[in-house]
Design a protein that fits this description.
This protein is α/β, with parallel strands linked by helices and 271 residues long. The chain is built from 12 helices and 9 strands. The protein is 47% helix and 14% strand. Helix 2 links the parallel strand 1 and strand 2. Helix 9 packs parallel to helix 10. It is globular. The two termini are 30 Å apart.
Length: 271
C-alpha cells in the first residue's frame, strides 16, 4: 500500500507525467557532489539538463561508502579530500536552482551525514534549496520513522532501491512508504548483450510496477547509448552513474563529459 503523503505533485512526479505524455522514458544521471572539486562539479551539474538529463542524482560523499563500487568510492574520496560536505552539497543544489527550477534533484547517499546534521534541520534546509528526493542506501524500511516518513511529510520523495534479491515477501515492505520512483539496481546479467540484460530486467520491472504503481528506473553498468535504450525500453527510465563519473575521473573537460552524457540521454530517449 502506497501512502499518498501529499496531493501536491513534486518535480519528480511532474517530470514522469510530462515524459509519459510525450511517450518518452526518463534519463537519470548520477554524479558525486564535489568531484573532483566544487567548481568543476557545479559546472557539470549545471550542464546536465541541456545534455538531456531528466532527473539528477547528486551523490553525497561519505567516509564509509560500503554499498558503492570502486568508481563511486574513489569519486567520494576525491570529493572529501577537497573539503566537500553536506552543507556544500546543499549549496550546490541552491546555486543550481537559481538557474533551473524544473529539473528534479535527488540526494543519494548514507544516513550518517544526515543524522549528524540533524534530520529536522536537514529536511528544512533541503526543502528550501529545492531538493526533491532522497535515496538513503543504508536505511531499511524497518527504520522509516528515522527519515523516510519525516521526509515525505516535508514534501520530499523518499525513493527506495530494489534488487533481484527483493522477493515478493520483501517487496511490499520495501515499497510501503516509497514515493517518486523505485530505483531497480540489477546486479545480475552484467555481461552480455544489452538485449539479454533487458530480457532479464523486464519481468522484474513489471513486478515492481504492479506492486508499487510507481515508475521504475533501472541502473546497472549502462555505459553506451545502446544499453541505455535497451533498458529504457523495458522500464520507465535508465540510470547512469559510474560511466559518467569515470569520464570525469580521466580528467576530461566538463564539455566532453556532457557530450558523452548527451549520447546516453539520446539513447534512453530513443526507446
Amino acid at each position: 500500500m502506497i501512502l499518498n503523503w501529499s496531493t501536491k505533485m513534486t518535480r519528480i512526479d511532474q517530470t514522469f507525467k510530462k515524459l509519459k505524455s510525450e511517450g518518452k522514458k526518463a534519463f537519470v544521471s548520477y554524479i558525486m557532489a564535489g568531484d573532483p572539486d566544487f567548481e568543476t562539479s557545479l559546472e557539470l551539474v549545471m550542464g546536465l539538463p541541456a545534455a538531456g538529463v531528466d532527473i539528477i542524482e547528486l551523490g553525497l560523499p561519505f567516509t564509509d561508502p560500503m554499498a558503492d563500487g570502486p568508481t563511486i568510492q574513489l569519486a567520494g574520496g576525491r570529493s572529501l579530500d577537497n573539503g566537500m560536505t553536506l552543507v556544500k552539497t546543499l549549496e550546490m543544489a541552491k546555486q543550481f536552482r537559481e538557474k533551473d527550477n524544473n529539473t528534479p534533484i535527488v540526494i543519494m547517499g548514507y544516513y550518517n551525514p544526515i543524522y549528524s546534521y540533524g534530520v529536522e534541520q536537514f529536511l528544512t534546509d533541503a526543502k528550501s534549496v529545492g531538493i526533491d528526493g532522497l535515496i538513503v542506501v543504508d536505511l531499511p524500511p524497518e527504520e522509516d520513522e528515522e527519515l523516510c516518513i519525516p521526509a515525505q511529510e516535508a514534501g520530499i520523495n523518499f525513493i527506495r532501491l530494489a534488487t533481484p534479491t527483493t522477493d515478493n515477501n520483501r517487496l511490499p515492505k520495501v515499497l510501503q512508504n516509497t514515493s517518486g520512483f523505485v530505483y531497480y539496481v540489477s546486479i545480475t546479467g552484467i555481461t552480455g548483450a544489452a538485449e539479454a540484460q533487458a530480457l532479464d530486467v523486464g519481468p522484474e520491472v513489471a513486478r515492481i510496477q504492479q506492486n508499487s504503481g510507481l515508475p521504475v528506473v533501472v541502473g546497472f553498468g549502462i555505459n553506451t547509448p545502446d544499453k541505455a535504450k535497451a533498458i529504457a525500453e523495458v522500464a520507465d527510465g535508465a540510470v547512469v552513474g559510474s560511466a559518467i563519473v569515470s569520464e570525469l575521473a580521466k580528467g576530461k573537460p566538463v564539455v566532453d563529459v556532457l557530450a558523452f552524457v548527451k549520447t546516453l540521454a539520446d539513447g534512453a530517449h530513443s526507446a
